[in-house]
Design brief:
The chain is mainly α. The protein is built from five helices and no strands.
Length: 130
């Protein structure tokens, strides 16, 4: 897991810089700056919207006595998506929007659930239940 994180930390910023330079040469630096600001504003609005909806879903599931498993995973995806959208760049913005938009978040959540289940089966992650 650490290897993937290190690879992500090293390669993504280099790709972002290259893509920003290429876009600046193609459409102009002011348009690139405008796009970065626009994606940040839209991303912040979307993260707030989705976060409030997730909190409402969490409260509804807790008041009806159900475990909020999907809601917790939604919250984690929204948190990561919002944080990634704060970094300037087109690759991280794409990742952030994929994590914030519900139809694209669903397959990502299924993938995360598979990984968590696999880690639990291997014994690398332990879930404590009351």
């Amino acid at each position: 897991m650490f290897r993937w994180l290190l690879l992500f930390i090293l390669i993504v910023p280099a790709l972002e810089i290259g893509l920003l330079i290429w876009a600046g040469n193609w459409i102009g630096p002011w348009w690139v700056i405008l796009l970065i600001i626009l994606t940040g504003v839209i991303g912040a609005w979307l993260a707030k919207q989705q976060g409030l909806e997730t909190i409402r879903n969490f409260q509804d599931s807790m008041s009806s006595g159900r475990m909020p498993q999907d809601t917790l995973l939604d919250g984690a995806c929204i948190l990561v998506g919002g944080a990634v959208l704060l970094t300037p760049g087109f690759i991280t913005d794409t990742i952030g929007f994929l994590l914030l938009i519900p139809p694209t978040r669903a397959p990502i959540k299924r993938f995360i659930k598979k990984i968590i289940t696999k880690m639990m089966d291997k014994g690398t992650v332990t879930i404590y239940r009351r």
